[in-house]
Automatic annotation (TrEMBL):
Signal peptide: none annotated. GO terms for cellular component: Golgi apparatus. GO terms for molecular function: ribitol beta-1,4-xylosyltransferase activity. Residues 103-246 form the RXYLT1 N-terminal domain. The gene is rxylt1. Residues 252-438 form the RXYLT1 C-terminal domain. It comes from the Eukaryota. GO terms for biological process: protein O-linked glycosylation via mannose. This is Transmembrane protein 5.
Length: 441
């Protein structure tokens, strides 16, 4: 039967109104349904502000229940335990990690370059040797060293980021002493202001071992200098707070760090010996030159004598000198004001055996069975020691009879010894700094 459109429309209107009334009733008047996922807990509120549950007063609880609440608590607890375990692990790592110390070196004398580049083997930037400011960093043992040198390194303008300092000074002559004293007074002020706590000095001492001017600055005499590394055979050396230090090569003459190679070790060297230097009046150097000339040995050795000492090398003279070292089996090392001279170390750099005049020079330097050159002798230096240059002809005669294989073997041993000696000095310097500066840390 076909329903009239009017009745169909009224039926739809009726159904809509009925559904709307039903929905309104459920929203405003019907009791809420309780489900397992989301239920309402109705409790009687206690007078005290809690809720009454079966007659007992319980703390106020929320209206909604979270079925994953226990799992969340367990997860957070486990996460916190993991975090705590990780913190303890990091703490153990930090505790077991070797402690490192920082020491700054101010190179205000040329021997500072021997310390930094030849002994500690540290880098320098820029590489230009005449740069006004040069610096470098390296790690050695437990110590992180930083080094500053050059004319632009002046008092009050060096970035001092640590409280341990090594000052490299020259005390060979009065003018140098005056300059070094100003630096010591500057460091003294830093100590008094508690900016610096530990101080060591590496000193190119006087060639006659007259170093009394620095005595008052030593801690044992009421000063602030904890350690003194002193060049030449000073009677002060006790290996407690004063240690002997090697003179090294003439860095002030731009003598470089030489890296040995196979050719240096195995090449045929055309000369038996060399001596290039100043010949002073009435010195043993005059005797040396006479012996070479009278025996005709000057033809088998490279010799260049000058009457006046020159503080600086030219590019040509430095190249000539290095060539002489590289082409000679032996380097003759007569005494000057002191027995220890740069030539000894420069000869070692090229594997040319130093022939050293082993005699005590005038002054207050330590005497005794091991003096002079006690530092080198204690290290087992493979040199040829003589007391008189009249012994030289016999020495050179033996040189002629040596085979090339013997010469190569001796050359290798000398280069290995010199590398080992510098390594020993590096370890000694670092260990003494660590033990003295940081023993109570």
């Amino acid at each position: 039967m076909k329903i009239p459109k009017r009745k169909l429309f009224l039926l739809i209107i009726f159904a809509y109104v009925a559904f709307s009334l039903y929905a309104a009733y459920n929203v405003f008047f019907s009791t809420k349904a309780i489900s397992r996922v989301h239920r309402v807990v109705k409790k009687e509120t206690a007078p005290s502000g809690g809720v009454r549950d079966g007659g007992a007063v319980a703390p106020f609880v929320g209206d909604e229940w979270n079925p994953w609440e226990n799992e969340q608590v367990d997860y957070n607890s486990a996460l916190n335990k993991k975090r705590e375990a990780f913190k303890q692990y990091i703490g153990r790592i930090d505790k077991n990690k070797p402690k490192r110390y920082k020491v700054q070196i101010w190179g205000k004398a040329a021997i500072g370059l021997y310390l930094w580049e030849h002994i500690l083997e540290g880098p320098l930037n820029p590489t230009d040797k005449v740069a006004q400011w040069r610096e470098g960093e390296l790690q050695c043992g437990k110590v992180d060293f930083s080094f500053y040198t050059g004319p632009a390194v002046v008092q009050g303008h060096v970035p001092l980021e640590m409280n341990s300092l090594v000052l490299v000074l020259n005390g060979r002559e009065q003018q140098k002493v005056t300059y070094s004293t100003r630096w010591l007074e500057h460091v003294k002020a830093l100590v008094q202001s508690h900016t610096v706590s530990h101080v060591a000095v590496v000193l190119l001492g006087n060639e006659r071992c007259n170093n009394d001017w620095i005595g008052p600055y030593l801690k044992r005499n009421g000063g602030f200098v904890d350690l003194l590394f002193l060049v030449y055979d000073s009677p002060w050396v006790n290996d407690k707070d004063v240690f002997q230090w090697p003179l090294g090569v003439a860095t002030y003459r731009q003598f470089p760090m030489i890296r040995p190679n196979a050719q240096m070790i195995t090449s045929n060297r055309p000369y038996l010996c060399n001596f290039l230097g100043t010949v002073y009046k009435n010195s043993s150097r005059e005797v040396l030159m006479q012996v070479l000339k009278q025996s005709g040995l000057d033809k088998e050795c490279i010799t260049t004598a000058r009457e006046k000492w020159l503080p600086q090398e030219t590019t040509d003279s430095l190249r000539h000198y290095q060539t002489a070292l590289a082409q000679s089996e032996l380097t003759l090392c007569p005494v000057g004001v002191n027995t220890e001279c740069y030539r000894i170390y420069e000869a070692c750099s090229y594997g040319s055996v130093p022939v050293v005049e082993d005699v005590q020079t005038p002054g207050t330097c330590a005497a005794g069975p091991s003096a002079p050159l006690r530092l080198l002798k204690a290290a087992g230096a493979p040199f040829i020691f003589i007391n008189d240059w009249k012994e030289l002809p016999a020495i050179l005669e033996r040189e002629r009879s040596m085979s090339q294989e013997q010469r190569v073997d001796r050359r290798r041993r000398l280069l290995e010894w010199y590398a080992s000696f510098r390594q020993q000095m590096k370890e000694r310097f670092t260990e003494v700094i660590e033990e003295t500066f940081f023993k109570t840390v």
